[in-house]
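hiii, so i know i said id send this last week but things got crazy w the move. better late than never?? heres the sequnce for the chain we talked about at the cafe, plus the structure i predicted for it. fair warning i was half asleep when i ran it
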Amino acid sequence: MLMRARPVQDQARARQPSGREQLKCQWELLTFISREVMVLARRQQQEIGDSEQPLDPDWDRLFMEEREKRFAVWTARNANGTLVGYAFVFFTTSLWSRGIVLAMIKLFYLAPEWRSGWLGLKFMRSLFEAIDRLNPVATIQVETNDWAMPRVAILLERCNFKRVHTTYQR
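okay and structure toks below
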């Protein structure tokens, strides 16, 4: 399925109001928010740079995984309802230990202007709590890349995560 994102005006770039802004975080269906996600994903790709693969989501596969309840999107929206962050979570079982349920956070992003203060930490903690409510026995794995380190490492360590392996790619 070929899908082109229509621009969403002022997507996450609007100036934050003064005071303590809150984000509304919740599970949403990618089926309904894919255009908004794509706009924000392009910002994430620009921030990462050319070190990653080109942005070309396999929409059919993502929608299928979502229908099968193996994939979910955790979102963050500002007071105006604008999408300012997301996390893609895949749910599966371990191939090497059948009794282990995994919640694999394969991709997450919060627009830079929404990372100040404790908003980034609150967004990630809300995600971990939401996963725990869905499946309290799940082992949560977070995938990140080196460009985001050490900032993401500090955030994850504050949430009681530890680094367990490194992946190399060529």
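btw Residues 32 and 138 are 26 Å apart (CA to CA). thought thatd interest u
miss u guys!!
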